[in-house]
Amino acid sequence: MAADTPVEYIKHHLQNLTYGKLPESYERADGTVMEEASWTFARTAGEATDMGFMAFHVDTLGWSIAMGVLFLGLFRFVAKRATTDVPGGLQNGVEIVFEFVQNLVRDSFNGRNPVIAPLAMTIFVWIFLMNSLKLIPVDFIPQIAHFLGLEYFKIVPTTDPNGTFGISIGVFLLILFYSAKVKGVGGFAKELSFTPFNHWALIPFNLVLEILGLIIKPLSLALRLFGNMYAGEVVFILIALLPFWIQWSLSVPWAIFHILVITLQAFIFTILTIVYLSQAHEEH
């Protein structure tokens, strides 16, 4: 995990652990040449770029799955041991989150769908857990990864646009599915064609506006979450470059402030998901 300059240090901490395919005769950073096309871990940012679209950010996938498993395991553990007597601290915490999300759905969702509340709960807690990984010191996990022979290793999945777009595209597919299911394919097409101007001559204009509005939804969800988390990560990395005594005077207040940020970003993603799905359930 060598970084000779601050610029190299920053680039190193912002690079994902990438697994992809390099072509035959490809010259790697250490001077070796690939005898045949094969799948491997990227040793430099250039190699990660040359792997193209069909490459995997292993750290993003790994931590996303780990936080999902943690969420499912934690809530299942609490549910199986829930009591009507005086609850423990963990049960109290889960109940607070449950009631909070339940109120969000009750106030923001106008349709009737038993899937929405569990979906909102999953999104809120999952994103919150992934965002919370940012509170781990920026050098801790990369140092462990370097000891294990991994050159790059990012810990926060939501600082990777691949991670945030993965969630937002899933929400977008649900919007399309429920729009077609509730309104019917013909009704959904008619809504796109005659909104906002109810005249056949303006159908092309309406389609441009409505399709653009649909596409903006997953873009706004993904980029808002990514932008806020990525900016916060950069600030933590910049603080880590300062002298040790200054690091603590800045990183602790920034980390405390970020507790609000990570919660707020999970809330915004969740509430927008509920609102978009509520719009998809409206019958026109």
Explain the overall architecture.
- The chain has 284 residues and is mainly alpha-helical.
- The chain has one domain.
- Helix content is 67%, strand content 4%.
- It is built from ten helices and three strands, in the order αββαβαααααααα.
- The protein has helices at 6-13, 45-50, 58-80, 89-108, 116-132, 140-147, 161-183, 185-193, 203-240, 244-280, and strands at residues 18-22, 38-41, 56-57.
- A three-stranded antiparallel beta sheet has the order 2-1-3.
- Helix 3 crosses helix 5 (116-132) and helix 5 packs antiparallel against helix 10.
- The protein is globular, with a radius of gyration of 23 Å.
- 25% of the residues are buried.
- The mean pLDDT is 90.
Task: Name a few traits of the molecule.
single chain; 284 residues; 10 helices
Topology overview:
Layout: H1 6-13, E1 18-22, E2 38-41, H2 45-50, E3 56-57, H3 58-80, H4 89-108, H5 116-132, H6 140-147, H7 161-183, H8 185-193, H9 203-240, H10 244-280
Antiparallel strand pairs: 1-2, 1-3
Helix pairs in contact: 3-5, 4-5, 5-10, 7-8, 7-9, 7-10, 9-10
What would the average pLDDT be, to the nearest integer? 90
Low-confidence stretches: none
H/E order of the elements? HEEHEHHHHHHHH
Form type: globular
- Find the structural class using helix and strand composition: mainly alpha
- Counted up, domains total 1
In short:
With 284 residues, the protein is mostly helical. It is built from ten helices and three strands.
